[in-house]
Amino acid sequence: MKIFKLSILSFFLIIALPISADDKKISIENITIIGEKTLPGSATKVTVEDLEKFETMDVHKALASVPGINVRPEEGYGLRPNISIRGTYPDRSGKITLMEDGILIAPAPYAASSAYYFPTFSRINAIEVVKGPSAIKTGPYTIGGAINLISTPIPISSKGFLNQEFGSDGNVKSHLYYGSSSKRLGFLIEGLKHETDGFDDMEHTNGDTGFDKTDLVVKLRFNNDPNADVYQQVDIKFQDSEEISEQTYVGLTENDYRSNAHMRYGFTDYDQMDNEHDQIVMSYNMNTENIDFSATYYKNDFARDWFKTDKIGYGGSDKSINNLIDYANTGDALAISVLRGTNATAESIKLKHNNRSYSSEGIVLKSNINLNNQTITIGYRDTEDDEDRMQWYERTNWVNGTLSGLVAGSMPGYSSNNRVTTAKANAFFISDEIQFENLTITAGIRSENWKIVQERYVDTARTAVNSDQGYPKILSDDNESLFGIGFDYSLQNGYSIFGGFHEGFTPTTGGSDPESADNLEVGLRYNSDNLAFEIIRFDTDYANMFGECRASSSGVVEGCDIGDTFNAGASSISGYEISASTSYVNEAGVKISANMSYTDTDAEFDTTFDSNFWGNVTAGMNLPNLPETQLTMVLSVETVSGWNTNLRMMSYGDTCSIAACGSNTGIDSYSITDLSLQKEVNEKTDFYMVIDNITDSENIVARAPKNGIRVQRPRSYNIGVRYRF
User: Are strands 145-151 and 97-100 parallel, antiparallel or unpaired?
Assistant: First the structure.
């Protein structure tokens, strides 16, 4: 299969390179999913200018300006985001389609979709978010929608950029790129290093709680004359990144949160994520007057070892993190002493090497055929991905606030810690966009076929698959066809109405039935020179919802095996998305602009059931980790002297970490306010200062991973310079 894919790509490379070119410089990268066309549904783009206002490092905050996006923060930096679109379950963004430059970036999109890899957000140039019927073009997760992160493009002329930043908690960021384009060649070289000591206080050991990330991106482009009857272009992209972050799954008890919201228990000092990621993408693009065609080959490799606390000693026995948090919340003296490191008798802390490697490889073919009043789009994606788990344990003793040296346990034999899950899938879609004067109608069909197989071995050396236990097992072997239709009708004076219907689904690997839902939206848009707004009503009717048991989840019943999935039956999600922006320039030349994004969501289970994931659920209960309301407002003031001031206010309604909302599961409504000041020195240089969480609020933002309390990042300061050359 790999040879076949490379042969196809090599053919396109061979026919593309010999073609001559003139002096024109071009830069056409096949990276967007929105483009310039009218879409049958809602779509939002967060621009590079939007991101630079606050030099945003956390994708959760960057997406706050997009209505319909729900997030569950975790460690304050957005290293492993939990993103939901229109109420999809947020854990590790596992139920939305995540892309970078149009390429799937989840470590193994079918075999293991949880986004334990996420691009270093400080190097991202823009974001596209697609919801509604357009989501069926991307897939495989088509219920909520898709997010496409756009990396730095190859410039059309020689251009460089340097960003140097320093700030609170030892924050240092260095970002540099340089690129250029000539007659037949374009290139970009980009490097980024970002590190911080972290903002939590490690009790007893005073260890760091931050991260160290490095990124390298290289892009090349070859092209012929853009005025040729047949324009052809070849793009090559290579990306490599490494991360070491001192992160844990252990949160805080109620009393410890009230005592010191930014404390971290000392026995988690060994907890650390260590990962590496590399990607290569090669694409061929051909454009004629009526036909656009692209062929893209991609390969992602990701390896990580998240060495973190798995079990905590309690009177000589191993207890889960959830157990100790729950015991301490009821006043259990032993649990409290172990968590706080005041225990006089040594307890064993069991840490696990959550050691996994992932790969995904595929080829994507796409063509647009432009007729008089009609555009037909045809696409095909063939992909293979896998997750390889080789996980083992180590132990340390914890007594009087001191950790002993680590003692490694045996490597796994036959168990869930020694397994490989492999997926093969192909997808096909065709859509037809027809223009009738002011009315545009788009209809599309998507077909997905996939097979997911798991192997578990008899021993560490993997000499044989454990056939006695039924391996290799087919976890899922299915296909799904989806239909979507949308319209956009342009009225007079800048108004337009739009709407659509599409079928959505989510593939599953753990034995339960795939998720399926019918999705409906209708909206009104208005655009003028200084005012724009959009209001959308959406409804998602789940015939079947499922949850996947993950260590990162909240409220999971003890005993569910990681990777198992559980059906939840029918559920209903509906709501409103409102966005508006306006700007005004006074007589002194001062530009004042305001942007608002609001989401109102009503999400309920429609069935009564009991499972090891959702717990005891009664019809009518709200979906967990999903606030009913979200509001973001950004106010900006730009002066003629080069001073720019931006104020961002984000407000989230209350929710619960589990469906059966009870004691120690509530997440009260909270808000975050950020401020940035920027001064343009000249057309090449500007300085900035960003103050995150200016009120230094210590609100609870999540009770996950596990059940411990997580709070927002405290007030922090960053100052930096951006130089363009």
Answer: parallel
Rounded Cα–Cα distance for residues 386 and 223 (Å): 34
Q: Cα-flanking dihedrals φ and ψ of residue 270, to 5°? A: -80, -15
Distance CA 654, CA 533 (A): 26
SS3 169: helix
| Short-list 332, 231, 218, CA closest to 282 | 218
Tell me if 569 sits within 8 A of 607, measured CB to CB: yes
pLDDT of 114 reads 83
Question: Helix axis angle, 321-329 relative to 333-340, nearest 10°?
Answer: 120
> For 431-445, how does the pLDDT look when each residue is reduced to its tens digit (9 = 90+)?
999 999 999 999 999
Say whether 2 sits in a helix, a strand or coil.
Answer: helix
Number of domains present in the structure of the chain = 1
> How far apart are alpha carbons 507 and 169 in whole angstroms?
41
Helices (H), 195-284: 254-259
**Rama region for 41: left / alpha / beta (φ>0; ψ in -120 to 50; rest):** left
- CA proximity to 504, closest of 149, 83, 137, 112: 137
Tens digit of each residue's pLDDT (9 = 90 or more) over 470-507: 999 999 899 999 999 999 999 989 999 999 999 999 88
Q: What is the pLDDT of residue 31?
A: 57
Q: Give the DSSP H/E element, type plus range, for residue 627.
A: none
pLDDT tens sequence across 246-268: 999 999 999 999 999 999 999 99
Amino acid letter at 575?
G
Q: Length of the chain in residues, anyone?
A: 725
Q: Which residue has the tokens 């096909």?
A: 428
Q: Of 141 and 30, which is predicted with more confidence?
A: 141
Contact (Cβ atoms closer than 8 angstroms) between residue 466 and residue 456: yes
* Beta carbons of 506 and 95 less than 8 angstroms apart: yes
678 by Cβ neighbours in 10 Å (0-12 / 13-18 / 19+) ranks as buried
Residue 33 belongs to domain with CATH number: 2.40.170.20
DSSP 192-228: EEEEE--SSEETTT-----EEEEEEEEEEEEE--TTS
* Residue 118, both tokens: 């996420």
How confident is the model over 663-699, as pLDDT tens digits? 999 999 999 999 999 999 999 999 999 999 999 999 9
* CA-to-CA dists, residue 46 to 61, 64, 409, 720, angstroms: 11, 10, 47, 22
| Rounded distance between C-alpha atoms, residue 77 and residue 195, angstroms | 11
Q: Which residue range is the domain that position 108 belongs to?
A: 2-724
Name the percent of the chain in helix, strand, coil, to the closest 5: 10, 55, 35
Around 661, how many Cα atoms within 13 Å sit in the side-chain half-sphere?
A: 16
Return the SS3 of 698: coil
pLDDT (tens digit, 9 = 90+) per residue, 66-89? 999 999 999 999 999 999 999 999
- Is residue 135 a contact partner of residue 158, using CB atoms and an 8 Å limit? no
39: confidence class by pLDDT, cuts 50, 70, 90: low
- Residue-wise burial string across 243-275, b where 16 or more C-beta atoms lie within 10 A, e elsewhere: bebbbbbbbbbbebbeeebbebbbbbbbbbbeb
